[in-house]
């Protein structure tokens, strides 16, 4: 199994693709990964389908040869669960020479939506990139500095976990997260946008939080730690002003 952790530091969103079909063995490899994704919440039913560009209304976005169409039950935590799941695919594509990009605007065609009995959530484009696949330096990331997203002391392995979260992608690069805690627990909070920003970002904020939580978990496991992602009353009680509690990462 390929270690996805290094991809955190070099992945980027790819928007320009070669449109020819991928080899069948490559698509089978993608499908195998889809079938083995680790959910954040295993009691939420999800459905991921590989669809072609003919199955998607691009809405002024550049076409990709393939998309993952993601469906989910509408249950508490479902958007965070989708972010956690699909970021595994984002890093998987990066590790296997394929580009990918979260797609907030394009929508699948009616026949795709009607092929699942649960709610359509979001698309992820993927294929062979026409541009350079990876970043060459962390300086290429446009991200907030750690003190802007956390008040935890940036020491030892905890700093590596926070850095992994800091580099996570988010809709319009909004970086809606804040983290509190210590060496044993990281409490994750999502920013509550004002009315105008909420119109654009409300759908995506909890998805973004799932992405960041997956980066934290992946980094912790890479460093030999065991983690559990839970709801924690202590974390909820410490929610900063204008933020909403999402989950806590317990670290051993």
What layout of secondary structure does this protein have?
Layout: H1 24-34, E1 46-52, E2 56-57, E3 66-72, H2 78-95, E4 99-103, E5 107-108, H3 110-113, E6 119-127, H4 146-149, H5 156-166, E7 177-181, E8 185-191, H6 195-222, E9 227-230, H7 233-237, E10 243-251
Antiparallel strand pairs: 1-3, 2-5, 3-6, 4-6, 7-8, 8-10, 9-10
Helix pairs in contact: 2-6, 5-6
Descriptive notes:
The chain has 252 residues and is an alpha+beta fold. The chain contains seven helices and ten strands. It has a four-stranded antiparallel beta sheet with strand order 1-3-6-4, covered by helices on one side. Strand 7 (177-181) and strand 8 (185-191) form a beta hairpin. Helix 2 (78-95) crosses helix 6 (195-222). The longest helix is centred in the C-terminal third of the chain and has 28 residues, at 195-222. The mean pLDDT is 95.
What brief labels describe this structure?
alpha+beta, four-stranded antiparallel β-sheet, 10 strands, 23% strand
Helical region count?
Answer: 7
Class by alpha and beta content:
alpha+beta
Query: What is the count of β-strands?
Result: 10
| Helix percent band | 25-40%
**What is the arithmetic mean of pLDDT?**
95
H and E order: HEEEHEEHEHHEEHEHE
Shape: globular
Low-confidence stretches: none
Strand composition percent: 15-25%
Main sheet attributes: strand count, strand direction, barrel closure: 4 strands, antiparallel
How far apart, in Å, are the first and last alpha carbons? 23 Å
- Strands of the biggest beta sheet: in what spatial order? 1-3-6-4
Instruction: Give Rg in angstroms.
Output: 18 Å
């Amino acid at each position: 199994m390929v270690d996805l952790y290094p991809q955190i530091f070099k992945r980027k969103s790819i928007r320009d693709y070669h449109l020819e079909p991928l080899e069948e063995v490559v698509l089978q490899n993608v499908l195998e990964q889809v079938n083995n994704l680790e959910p954040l919440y295993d009691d939420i039913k999800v459905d991921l389908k590989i669809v072609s560009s003919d199955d998607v209304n691009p809405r002024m976005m550049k076409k990709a040869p393939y998309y993952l169409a993601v469906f989910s039950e509408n249950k508490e935590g479902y958007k965070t669960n989708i972010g956690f799941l699909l970021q595994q695919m984002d890093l998987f594509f990066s590790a296997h020479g394929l580009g990918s990009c979260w797609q907030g605007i394009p929508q699948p065609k009616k026949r795709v939506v009607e092929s699942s009995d649960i709610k359509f959530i979001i698309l992820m484009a993927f294929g062979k990139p026409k541009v350079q696949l990876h970043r060459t330096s962390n300086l290429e990331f446009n991200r907030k500095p750690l003190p802007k997203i956390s008040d935890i002391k940036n020491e030892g392995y905890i700093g590596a976990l926070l850095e992994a979260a800091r580099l996570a992608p988010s809709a319009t690069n909004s970086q809606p997260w804040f983290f509190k805690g210590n060496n044993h627990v990281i409490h994750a909070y999502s920013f509550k946008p004002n009315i105008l920003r909420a119109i654009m970002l409300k759908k995506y904020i909890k998805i973004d939080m799932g992405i960041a939580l997956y980066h934290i978990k992946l980094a912790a496991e890479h460093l030999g730690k065991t983690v559990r992602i839970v709801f924690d009353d202590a974390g909820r009680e410490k929610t900063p002003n204008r933020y909403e509690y999402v989950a806590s990462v317990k670290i051993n």
